[in-house]
Amino acid sequence: MKNIMVTGGAGFIGSNFIKYVLANFDYNIINFDKLTYAGNLENLSEIESDKRYRFVKGDICEKKEVEKTVEEYSIDAIVNFAAESHVDRSILGAKEFINTNVMGTHVLLEVLKEKGLEKYLQVSTDEVYGSLPEDKKEILFTEKTPITTNSPYSASKASADLLCNAFYHTFRLPILITRCSNNYGPYQFPEKLIPLMIAKALNGEKLPVYGDGKNVRDWLYVQDHCSAIIKVLQEGTHGEVYNIGGNNEWYNIDIVKLILDKLGKGEDMIQYVKDRPGHDRRYAIDSAKIMNELGWSPEYNFESGIEITVKWYIENMNWWKKVMSGEYLKYYERNYGEKVNQ
Ligand code: NAD
Ligand code: DAU
Predict the structure, then answer these.
(1) Structural domain count of the chain
(2) Is the pLDDT score of 342 beyond 50?
(3) pLDDT at 28 exceeding the cut of 70
(4) Which of 72, 93, 124, 338 has the most CB atoms lying inside 10 A of its own CB?
């Protein structure tokens, strides 16, 4: 395995992954990205002149574009990050989620089959397992937890996982699936909870907390997700699913209060708004399989990860201010306009 095609490499986790791999391994990386609203080549400016890195603008739904890149760069493996990734957007409109997350994954699997590549890794999510009871803290998502999808986003990601499973069983292709919990860290698009709250607090705006703020998420620093993905790519067993998590459950409201505290701002900035429809109550991952079988463990605890993250957003206001202009603002009005007015 020498040449890795990273799809969706201009997004949050993909760009962190490319930088992590180039810094720690000797692979050539071909970043294949459509550059949707979430794709930003600025995320990769520090490595763009690295001889082992190439960018190709392309859509995973377009088979010819994928085939051409696979041939031109003698691709050995694909790591598929490309997706529509934001739950709220999937509630406003599911079409692009079905296109990219399901149809796009199908295209990649067909190319994998036809070209006989060495490996394919599908970057999936813990959201495919649905929601856990909040009063039974001992229950966690394992790889055996049944698929239960509650948002168009999670349904699209689960559909892709099922296709991967089918292509493994039917065609014996070298397919791996990872399912990770909520990521945070530098370069996360400020539509997701942590960067949105930091940006709003720094802008002196109200922080919109959905419902009672008591939904629970299990947070993992992005670089730890990246180290887990490369571990699975190199050492994982084909046809298997690997859960990845931080063993780090937080109520949303506590995260928001922590951010305000770190920024020296008051809790009067919090505004409770109408809940997300179908809002999953609790996610929590059991990472025992990847830890015991592959020897992976996270390097960052939440204290250090959130410190680095808040500092990064303070020092990189230009990055997120640019990102928050234009298309993003229109989306913001559509998603929050109605919630706040209720
Ligand atoms: P993101 O929205 O920041 O980035 C997605 C990237 O995919 C963007 O660069 C975008 O331009 C690209 N893209 C979208 N449609 C494309 C298409 N048709 N063809 C090619 N490129 C396309 O997403 P993220 O948060 O970095 O998530 C990456 C992956 O990890 C997703 O598959 C997501 O489901 C999964 N995941 C995310 C999290 C999280 O907390 N963010 C947790 C677990 C799993
Ligand atoms: O669990 C993994 C998933 O985590 C990934 O698959 C998704 O791609 C990623 O977006 C994320 O999904 P969530 O829906 O959990 O993340 P989000 O940051 O949108 O929301 C986190 C929690 O914060 C959730 O309970 C909703 C709440 N929230 C979110 C926003 C944007 C608010 O209270 N207010 C907000 O404005």
Answers:
(1) 1
(2) no
(3) yes
(4) 124
